[in-house]
Every structure is written in C-alpha cells, then in structure tokens.
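Slack export, channel: ligand-projects

TW: morning all. Re-posting the request from yesterday since it got buried. We need the structure predicted with the small molecule present, not the apo form. The ligand is zinc ion; the SMILES is in the block with the sequence. No rush, but it would help planning for next week.
GE: picking it up
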Amino acid sequence: MFMQPQIVHDRWATIETKSETHVVEADSMIDVLRELDVEDIVEIHLEDGWGARFSAPGYLDCTGWGVYESEASAAEALLEEMDCDCEACEECEAISELSEMARPGLASTDEPR
Ligand SMILES: [Zn+2]
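GE: finished. pasting the full token output, ligand included:
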C-alpha cells in the first residue's frame, strides 16, 4: 500500500517523555497528555511550522510527524524517503509534486500564490 505524503501547516506540540517523543497538532495535545503519566513528562514544546508525514488513506497506518520551518524543507524531508522512477505510479506523481514544493519558483509556472 502506497503511503501518501502529507504536509500541513499548523501549531505543533512536541511532548517529550522519559521513554518517547510525541509530535501532534497542538489542538489535540490534550488527548495525548491524558494518556500520559505526568511524572514521565520531561518537556513540552510548541511551535508553528510545517508538519510532514506519510499516511495510508482510509487506514490508521501513518508515520509520526516531523516539523519543519518551511514547506520546502518539509517536502525535501519526505522526498528523501521516497524512491521510484517508473514515472507511471502514484508514488512518482507524488514525487514530482513534492519536488515542485521543495524548489518553489523553479518548476511550475502556475504558482497558487
Ligand atoms: Zn513509480
């Protein structure tokens, strides 16, 4: 199953515990905190930025969010995980879209902004 790249601008909460790190939209931070033992929480960090991950649509299957300062660097990070050059599949389509995002101004003439 091809995992779709997802890039979202939002406010992000990074919740670091003694054993793991959770990165979630700040809006849903409370849901994560409820599941945690207060004594295990080491640090909570809030930032605005571009979240990037892969997810399988219709499934709960997805990777964790990575947060980046720009849309371009978020796209670049996702591109590093992708590898196909058949030029006929969904993944190749996503790779070309992300490549345009990673190099704004160079590729497309129909910039949405
Ligand atoms: Zn392909």
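GE: first-pass observations. Helices lie at 29-35, 71-79, 90-102. The radius of gyration is 16 Å.
TW: perfect, thank you
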